[in-house]
Amino acid sequence: MTGIALHSGGERDLLTGLPGVCSAADWLDGGGDSGFVQAMLVSLQRLPAVNLAYGVAGGDRVLVEVARRLRDFVADELGAQAMVARAAGGAFLVASRAALSRERWQWLAEALGRAIARPLMVDGERLSLAPRMALLRGKPGERGAELLDRLDQASGDLQRRSGRRVLWADGSHPARGRSAASLEGDLLGALHRDEIAILFQPQFHVATGVLAGAEALARWEHPSFGRISAETLFAVADRGDHVAQLSRHIVLRALTMAAQWPDCAPLPLRLSLNVTAEDFAVGDFAASMRSALAQSAFSPERLTIEITEQTLITDFETCAASLRDLAEIGVSVALDDFGTGFSNFRALKALPLDALKLDRSLVSDVHNDPRDRAILSAMGAMARALGLKVIAEGVESETQLAILQSEGADLFQGFLRSGAISAEDFAALAQG
User: Fold this and answer.
1) Which of 9, 106, 228, 259 has the CB geometry, 3.0–4.6 Å to 298, for a possible disulfide?
2) What domains can you pick out in the chain, each with its CATH number?
3) What is the pLDDT of residues 269-284, one digit of tens each?
């Protein structure tokens, strides 16, 4: 068992920056008062082996990276009604007050497990974790301490069951065979009917506030499960071996829509596309992207490929070669989520980079914490020395924007100006 102890959690966990278990219990108390809460306890069973092999410092780096993946997943998939906290050791808590079905909660758990299990680097070696998830739905009026105790017991039971990755605290689980096959079938139908929506997250010039372009994001409005964001969407596709088909669909749809954007000369609007390890794994990525550009009639000089260091871990040389191929026809490359997790400066030298995209965690407290300001300043100076632009995400206040401007950042995105919007709304924004 994870041994969650309420007396051990403070307001914030010093290592990961997440709320501690006492803060989590208070949040869960509020959920019980409102009548609905559901939670999952994510356990990294291999953490003791990581500590043994790489030392406590290596284990700490793993925990920081997992916390970042958890934060990003919860922000993208669950939004403001959710909470993520560090429970104890290698255990993390995710909870939500949204009225989601049991099937949806389990799919989210499996998608989160997929995100955490992606390879990471420790002392130059690839490492993959296989998290286990205990799930529950809170009972009416159940207090946070009681809920955490039930989760802890379920997690202990799960650790004794070889081969199981997900377990409900009441011992039951959704009808996996039927629901899994049904959801995969729904996805194929949605692809055929063009029901996978492409939203656009506007990006603006820091210096002038002028619209610069947008990052494309995939969403699926499922008739039963509601909105399914990209991570869960790709988890469903991966289970049915449809990742390549889904990725091609999203890329072509986004490029085709962007080709219809109004002319904003002398600074034409740019499109940013996120690329995953799966995109490189299914074949010749550069050739596939060239084909999509030709089919959509979108100019390569207006496209930016966003790639994370996490993606590069799988096969750095293959990824780098594909990106160099695309750079030759004018496609730009941005290193996404820079400054978090396992920053590898090898990428700055080996890739044809045009920009560094700072993770939202580097921006969120830059106006309050002098250390965050110093980190931002150092990254900006390094980017300028390398001739790279700086893109900041998660900008929510004028104060943050003013600091970014003083530090020489080039582009920003975030709720200060706009969240992700439909293609129609983006076209209206571009027209003015």
Assistant:
1) 259
2) 6-174 (3.30.70.270), 179-431 (3.20.20.450)
3) 999 999 987 788 766 8
- Residue 16 token pair: 């990961």
Question: Does 32 score more than 90 pLDDT?
Answer: no
How many CA atoms does the CB half-sphere of 350 hold within 13 Å?
13
Three-class DSSP labels, 191-228:
HHCCCEEEEEEEEEECCCCCEEEEEEEEEEEECCCEEE
Q: Which of 169, 170, 94, 159 is nearest to 130 (CA)?
A: 159
> What's the whole-number average pLDDT of the chain?
86
According to DSSP, the residues that pair with 392 across neighbouring strands are 358, 412
The per-residue DSSP string of 162-201 comes to TT--EEETTS----HHHHHHHHHHHHHHHHHTT-EEEEEE
Per-residue pLDDT band at 138 (split at 50, 70, 90): confident
Distance CA 183, CA 224 (A): 10
Q: What angle do CA 27, 29, 30 make, to 5 degrees?
A: 65
Q: Answer yes or no: are the C-beta atoms of 83 and 23 closer than 8 Å.
A: no
Expressed in percent and rounded to 5, the helix, strand and coil fractions of the chain are 50, 20, 30
Candidates 190, 348, 216; CA nearest to 270 is: 216
List, in sequence order, every residue forming a beta bridge with 305; answer none if it has no partner. 273, 333
AA identity, residue 402: A
β-sheet bridge partners, residue 43: 91, 132
**Lookup: tokens for 70:** 């958890």
Q: Is the pLDDT of residue 7 over 70?
A: no
Residue 215 pLDDT > 60: yes
Rounded to 10 deg, the angle between the 243-258 and 285-296 helix axes is 40
